[in-house]
Design brief:
about 260 residues, about 20% strand, rod-shaped
């Protein structure tokens, strides 16, 4: 066992290191391939034989740098072999989506979590979505403002109707109060006129009583004396007729002499 673990090598005495010439291999025109150990980044199916290869299966793969890049990130290509038919399968890195893409000889199986991941938006999509949301928000804000304006107008209209109703009620009340005041004033004027008329009538009566009292008294006394005289004279005494005075001579009228 100790012979396998050789720590030193034997060099003969006649060995000359300078006799070994240093040579350079010709440069390969094709891109350099590097053998690496990796696992399958996704579950896939070989299109040649239909073999399914699960995610995480280990392979000795060849890595190749391509001329493609994404934001100065070089895209790599990997070559593996199918475990059943040994067909060549290739896939590349996808730094844009932080994933891998199937290129040749394989078909990627459906993965629900990958679909949800691909459904996630990129920066450009996010900016577009934000612009759309902002536009929708502006539209919603405009609609909300319109709704608020309509509500405000309805409230103003209701307030105006209430004010008109109150003013009409107050106007009717003022009109009724004015009519009542006019009627009351008219009644007061009528009462004042009646009172003045009563005062004038009473004053006239008082004046009539004070000025005509004596005359009425004397007239009554004369009437009583005449009644007494008539009662004292005989009942059937003929009255003496007064001789008519002749005023013709005074008036210059000549009487005709009868022939």
């Amino acid at each position: 066992m100790s012979e396998r673990k050789v720590l030193q090598k034997y060099y003969p005495p006649e060995f000359d290191p300078s006799s070994i010439a240093r040579t350079r291999k010709p440069k390969d025109a094709a891109p350099k391939l590097q053998t690496v150990r990796l696992m399958a980044p996704f579950s896939l199916q070989c299109t040649t034989c239909g073999e399914f290869i699960y995610r995480g299966r280990k392979f000795n793969a060849r890595k190749q740098a391509t001329d493609e890049s994404y934001y100065n990130i070089t895209i790599l290509r990997f070559y593996i072999r199918c475990t059943r038919c040994s067909a060549e399968l290739t896939f590349k890195t996808d730094p844009k989506n932080n994933d891998y893409t199937a290129e040749k000889g394989m078909k990627r199986n459906f993965e629900p979590w990958r679909e949800s991941k691909l459904a996630e938006e990129t920066e450009e999509e996010r900016l577009d979505r934000l612009e759309r949301e902002e536009a929708e928000q502006d539209a919603m804000t405009e609609l909300e403002n319109k709704t608020l304006d309509a509500k405000t107008e309805m409230a103003i209209a209701d307030k105006l109707d209430e004010i008109r109703t109150r003013n009409a009620r107050m106007e009717r009340a003022d009109k009724a109060a004015a009519e009542a005041a006019v009627a009351k004033k008219k009644d007061e004027i009528d009462e004042e006129k009646e009172r003045e008329e009563r005062e004038i009538e009473e004053a006239a009566k008082a004046a009539f009583r004070s000025g005509m009292g004596e005359w009425l008294k004397s007239a009554v006394e004369e009437v009583e004396e005449v009644i007494e005289e008539e009662s004292a004279t005989p009942a059937f005494v003929p009255k003496k007729r007064k001789k008519k005075q002749d005023f013709s001579a005074a008036l210059g009228i000549k009487k005709k002499v009868a022939v």
